[in-house]
Amino acid sequence: MARLKEIYFDKTQEELKNILGIKNKYALPMLEKVVINVGIGQAKTNPKYENVVKETLMAISGQKPATRRAKKAVSGFKIRKGDKVGQMVTLRGERMYDFVDRLANITLPRMRDFRGLDPKGFDKNGNFTLGISEQIVFPEITHEKAEIIHGASITIVTTARDIKQAKSLLKALGFPIKGEVILKKG
């Protein structure tokens, strides 16, 4: 079982019950899935770009990414219907908990000038979206492997009903949020 999953079910649920005032453990917010997206618009000018993105996503997530295609043509962006526009990976279960654990404890502290997650990244449904500008912050990617630097969008989908529940869940899982005071138990 993933380390973060054990922590969530053993300790974090009790903390969330006290913080949110919810008595039923099945009504508590929890992680549903994690979606990682990378746009590959540069693949038209650089043929290696798509393969670099695919290999990066495979190294980061542990599974093969799906190619996303344009649903309709957009002349302003020089995109035709059916063109490849992105790569995405959806993580659930054990892989999701492993990825979130590595993201919170290893990757985010390695980011340059990281001061915490921006609270504006939460949507009204309790999901959180984070943008990463360089894939080399992940420990699985070395500078030698990173021929081309690209970013990624990471969306953490939760079962939270509102922003307050989602913030409480992410804080309990170890994510630092800007403007939020972290109390150390001692």
Q: Summarize model confidence as the mean pLDDT.
A: 85
How many helices? The count is 4
- Helix-and-strand structural type: alpha+beta
* Overall number of strands: 5
CATH superfamily: Ribosomal protein L5
Order of helices and strands: HEHEEHEEH
Helical residues, percent: 25-40%
> CATH architecture, please?
2-Layer Sandwich
Rg, Å, rounded = 18 Å
Query: What number of structural domains do the residues give?
Result: 1
Residue ranges: pLDDT <50 for 5 or more in a row?
none
- Strand proportion, as a percent range, falls in 15-25%
Ends apart, CA distance between termini: 27 Å
Q: Which of globular, elongated, flat, extended, rod-shaped describes the shape?
A: globular
In short:
By secondary structure, this protein is of the alpha+beta class. Helices cover 32% and strands 18% of the residues.
